[in-house]
Design brief:
Elements: H1 2-15, H2 22-47, H3 53-67, E1 69-74, E2 78-94, E3 106-122, E4 125-136, E5 154-162, E6 171-177, E7 199-208, E8 211-221, E9 224-227, E10 230-232, E11 236-248, E12 251-262, E13 267-280, E14 283-294, E15 309-318, E16 327-335, E17 362-374, E18 377-388, E19 399-413, E20 416-427, H4 431-435, E21 465-475
Antiparallel strand pairs: 1-2, 2-3, 2-21, 3-4, 4-5, 5-6, 6-7, 7-8, 8-11, 9-10, 11-12, 12-13, 13-14, 14-15, 15-16, 16-17, 17-18, 18-19, 19-20, 20-21
Amino acid sequence: MAAALGAVANLGLAQAPAPSDPLADLQRQVDALRRELAELKAEKAAERPGTSLEREVSAFSSRLQEEGGGTVTAPNAGKITLGGSYRARIHYVRNRDFDQHGGNDDDYTTHRFRLNAGVELDEHTKVFAQIRSAFLWGTQSGSFAAEASNGDVTLHQGYGEFTDLMGSGWDLRLGRQEFVYGDERILSNIDWEEFGRVWDGAKLSTKYDDLGVDFLWAKAAESFTAFPGATTGSDIDLYGVWITYSGSEDFSVDVHVLPIEDRSVESLFVHLGARARAKVEMFDIGGEFDAVRDRGDGDNSHVTYNESYLLAADAGLSFEDVEGKPRIGVGWSQGTASYVPVVPDLHRYAGIMDVVTPFVNLIDWEANVSISPMEDWTLSGAYHVFQFENTPAAAGDETLGHELDVVLAGACTDHLRVEVGYGHFFPRAGFEAFESGLVGGLTPGTSLAFNPWTPFPAGASANDSDLIYIQFDVPF
């Protein structure tokens, strides 16, 4: 009987209502309202997908990331995307003509401002324009010197883009534009250079699953006849086919054919090459070649594929699971003395100091290492050994020199990226032949617009030089 009474008492206690909790009741009501709001949003999106706020925000974010700017809608003008960037780079150069004497050091600052706008007229038509001004600090109005011509505002890019022409799946870009392909050993926009490289022409492209095909044409230089019998400039065209296969994130291969026709000397240089990159677990490896032959009948000396070529290879080992994600790598490239480059990235290869022109009569051995000391920051170092591919008789040795580079780069804010670099060049016996112009009339430095290196005085011995720079990038 006692047990039965206890069970009844327990049952009664279990069924007794719990004390009311106002906060818990309010939370339940809020949760219910949130569920109803989510259901209403889903119904609204299903009825009128074009008015979905979440979809609009997502599309805006995607465009912002792609174009690097904000998007507004103007009446009768489609969607207008605005963006741009500002960059300042401060340089200090020690011993800029490689001869130890007073007054030979230098410091200077370069600027680059770019402003771009894109207008989407409809889903298949877009117009894009980008203006730029590049100049040295102290050469503009306000200084004692006259304004430098390199500070003029000019059109960097300007083109119309037409997608899915007549439902064919082919896209056309017509106008002034950048050509950037592969590892940028062949075609690059040379972003390090304040002016950059662009082409006036057209690109017709399509994609079949993992296979992309681009047909290129551009006017590299145009002749102008002021009057009969007087022609200035040259008449050079670039043609090309670039085919890319990307079977996965870890493998890609490119094949290219790039004829360059110079009508002023009846020359037709044909570039034929390929590139491949692959990643297998911790290892990444890449290779590229570009062979050139002059198929013309003009004034330039003819070369064969065996005589004019560029070969390059690199490999790396990455430790993604280790703190700092360190990576070690090696690289090698060799270009013959008669190799005629198109527009390679003149800064990315052959050292950050830009003392040696990459790929032309040059063998470059490189060892490199990098680590991320903190999120969004990378510390990298490289050591180069430069040698002649074809050593001139006047050179004291096949080695031009060595170079040590160290770069720290990262993001301080969402709109400020900072890069600090240091380079040291060690000339060797072969460098004096390079300096004196015995190798194709070359002088130190690439064809970058703002390059500090000058030949050292005749009869002098080359000495070490240093470069220190700090760069500020502000995209918007």
